[in-house]
Design brief:
Elements (H helix, E strand, L loop, with lengths): L2 H4 L12 E4 L18 H12 L3 E4 L5 H13 L6 E2 L4 H7 L10 E3 L16
Parallel strand pairs: 1-2, 1-4, 2-3
């Protein structure tokens, strides 16, 4: 497969906002599960700026129950608010006439993520 095969033109969006899904532990704060570590202020400030510019933010985390409530409260205490938590945006569910389990976003920010093209350099292939 050549690099030309893997490079495509970006999809045109028929909406005027970007959707950003962001993880909590190890991303918005230092990983200290089940506790909450120090906040990642730089990332939080970036996300607040993006939201002010019209981006929609989704908290995308494995936390559930009381630990999830604590994570959302922690973010609010730092001035970071979400349009959805562990679910798709309502307007995307309506647009696609379903709510798949996979969160739809234009940008995923997660300490555990990697582009599949980087896998050979990580020794996976």
């Amino acid at each position: 497969m050549s690099s030309q095969d893997t490079q495509k033109e970006p999809q045109q969006r028929d909406r005027d906002f970007t959707i950003i899904a962001v993880d909590f532990d190890g991303t918005l704060c230092k990983a200290m599960w089940p506790d909450i570590g120090e906040p990642n202020i730089e990332l939080m400030e970036y996300l607040k700026e993006q939201r002010e510019q019209g981006a929609k933010l989704i908290l995308w985390t494995c936390r559930a129950g009381e630990p999830l409530v604590e994570a959302v409260q922690f973010c609010r205490e730092h001035g970071l608010y979400f349009d959805a938590v562990n679910q798709n945006l309502p307007e995307m569910c309506k647009r696609h006439n379903n709510d798949s389990r996979k969160i739809y976003a234009d940008i995923y920010i997660d300490d555990k993520s990697s582009r599949w093209t980087n896998l050979p350099f990580m020794g996976v292939f």
